[in-house]
Amino acid sequence: MLQDGTVDRLCDRLREYVEAYNEPNEEKRNEKLSAFFDPSNWPETENKTGKAQESFNKSLIKAAQDNKCSVDVAKAKFGSTIKAKWLFDRSKTYKHFANILMYATFRQTSKLGLDFFKSQNKPILFHMSNRDLTDFGDTKDWILKDNHWKTGQMDEKYGSSEITHSEVRHANKIVKQYGDANANLWYVHGA
Description:
mainly alpha
């Protein structure tokens, strides 16, 4: 259950993100995005900025060691991801914001993409792998039967189902609507 004002705060944050992301000047855009993702600007983390920096630095050092590169290279390659993960783990507001982008926006645009390419009579190659890049296998039936979100259950770590699961269900609707031969949809297996 969202607390009073949470939706308004999320709308404000989403507007801020879109404005920062669409800044035409690259230097200003980077500054705005850096400020947007600063842990001190998110509820539940504002008094932990020192801890955030310490945690961030440790994660950067680990990323540098794991990838056999300098800390500067690790920061350039993984810095925004590490910061986003830290925020996701510590700020409910940021977790809601990230879920809006991941689950609402990407799910819908990917479904629209499937519909668009079908309407253009272009073949759709659907790569079958999970978030951990493991292959779905020869069957997608378990994805099509999965409906835990309909019973009010949610995965604590990730939210609802995999983004690709939603796309698999939508692709299956296309196949049902047009038939196997006319759907022009091909499942590609592998990691």
